[in-house]
Every structure is written in structure tokens, then in C-alpha cells.
Amino acid sequence: MKPKIAIFSLTSCEGCSLAILELEDHLLDILGAVEIVNFREGMTDRDWDIDIAFVDGAVSTPQDAKEIQHIREKSRVLVAIGACACLGGVNTLKNYQSESDYRRCVYGDMANYFPTTRAKPLSAIVKVDYELPGCPMVKEEFLEFVKCMLMGKVFRLPDSPVCVECKKRGNPCLYDQGIFCLGPVTRGGCSAICPTFGSKCEGCRGLISREGLAAAGVNIRETYNASVKDVMDDLRLYGAYQEGDLP
Predict the structure, then answer these.
(1) What is the mean pLDDT of the chain?
(2) Total-model pTM
(3) Beta-sheet strand order (sheet of 75-81)
């Protein structure tokens, strides 16, 4: 019997779910090995007997919290996909503003019509078995994860920073050029796509380790005389570091 897969979206742009549809020929190969039973972006049928649930988006409303708890109850394996599901993502920016301000900015005169809560990653509400981070998630990493699950192999995220992949691609170091690149503290696996095209890494795959963050925090402040606020603002864009002061 084929494993039953479902894909869900909470508060997000749903770009990670759409990335699955963009797999095109690879998606046809996947469909030969699994049965997709619940996927609002791609089908109308619904089935709640789920082996592996992939969920993108943050928990940012009371309804999100109820929905992820229901998905968890119905799924044997739960996988968070994308920065919003893994870290809270850009949704967490509202956590640093007054509720009245962001409500008015987003909804205008209808500010009080929509329920909202502090934005959180899925792991703040339910047990998450695996995470596939990134904004959006890396499609190749999703394929590798599915293959591992089908073959009964252990899946592990890369344990090296973006800098390693940047060096392998021969990119000039943006950090050495005085640009506030977060590659030294961000988990690799994205093939350093942003620095390769001249943009600094903004940490969408989360921190590689707290120890690395501590070392980088000191280095950034000493080398570039950056304020703690500047460092924290960059780390918070995708919710990469949300609690306490920079080590």
C-alpha cells in the first residue's frame, strides 16, 4: 500500500506548497510511489487517514492553532516546511509591534474583524517530527526527504553553515566586503543561492547553532561596530532568533 501524504497551509503565502506543484516531472515520479489524500492547492478530495503531513505557514491565529492540532492528531509523521512553519517566518515581525498598529496597517477600518495571536512556529503548539526550512523550502531537499521516507532511511538536515556552500561555489565573500551577511550563522542546504546572486543571506533556514550565533554576534559588533538592535533586526526577519538578547 502506498504511503498517504497530505499537504496543508496555515498563515503564509503558501509558496512552499506551490513549490511542490512546481516539481513537475519529479512530482509525477512521487505520485507513482505515494498517494496524495489531502492537498487544497492541487485537488478537491479530502481524506484524513494520513501517514505523512507536510505543513507550511505559521500559527498566527486561533484557527491556525486548532487546525495544526487536528492535523497532528490525524498524522503519523508531521513535517514543517518553510521558514514560517519552522521558525514563525516573516509573520513574527508583528510580535514586535503593538497589536493595534499591525491590525490597522493590515486591515484598515476592518482591524477588529479578524482574530489574531502572536505568530509561532508549529513546534510551539505540537510535536514536529521533521523540518524542511527555507523561504521557500528547497525543492530538492523535499525530494530527498520523500526518498528517505520511502526507503526507510534517516533524513538529516545539513549541519554546516551557508558559508561552506558559498565557498564551494567560488562566490566572493559578502561578509568580508562589509555586508551584513548572515551566512556564517545560517544552516546550509540552499546552495547559497542568495549570495550567489549578490544578495546577502538573511537567515531563512534558521540558525546553525547557538554557539555559532554567540561567536558571530561578538564578531559582527566588533568588526562592523554594529548595534545589537541592527543584528537582532536582521535575525528576526524570518524569526531566526526571537528570544532574549543576542549572546
Answers:
(1) 90
(2) 0.91
(3) 35-39, 4-9, 50-56, 75-81, 130-132
